[in-house]
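Hi, here's the filled form for the chain we discussed.

Project: internal
Contact: R.S.
Residues: 275
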Amino acid sequence: MFIPRSIAVLVVTSVSSSALAADLITDVTFTCNLGKTIDAAFYPDAVTLALSDGRRLELPQTMSGSGARYANSDETIVFWNKGNTAFLTEGGDETPTFNGCIRVSDMVPDPNWRIFASTEFGFSLRYPPGYSVDGGYVYQGLGPGADITGVSFTIPSAMSTGTNLSSDTRLSIETLPEAPDCSADQFLPTGATAPTTLTENGTGYSIASLEDAGAGNLYEEKVYALVGTSPCLAVRTFIHSTNLANYDPGTVQPFDEAALNAQFDAIRRTLVIGQ
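And the returned structure, exactly as it came back:
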């Protein structure tokens, strides 16, 4: 469910008064290429837009063969919305000025959380400040020639300082473009648990996990593959910790695994697929 926000409006084209008098259907924030954003408030036959460049637009809905199309009277400004994606074109040559736009989740675990979007992988999410983002992340746990690409979000160093949690602990969003179906076991090497299913907030997941240990290190991986996505998209959590017995008593505290998993879950629930 979207949370309505109040949006100031500058009328740039003629819209019937009934459009704005009607109840708001929903309002959505889109994050776009080059760090741009669009706040869109949808009415039965119009949309109002608050653009990150400071402009406020009001556009009536027009005919469209696919998705929803809104334009001013001379069609020099056109806003398109289909599913969780949108873009804005301007001028007679229909130059895209806001493109690659993906809806941002209206779940806001904390107002200080940041927004990330990837048009390459087609998703947006929210994540806590201090996490480091790697847009060129590659998972290599399946061996040579089986790399999985994606985006990783590694915990802040402050979360591991003084504990047995290692600083390479992370959450990643990964994709398998040619997967015949979207199941979690495809993202994990041999030895992982058999996939189980979960539906949460209307999203279906295939879930599998893997635990490993060696030389005093403990590794826990859990994959949430989004059922029905194509290319197959998955959320992986990777927790690396060390055995407390490796340290002098009292020098290192055990990390709060429940709190860490709760934060990873909160990040995962803000994931929006650009489809």
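Let me know if anything looks off before we file it.
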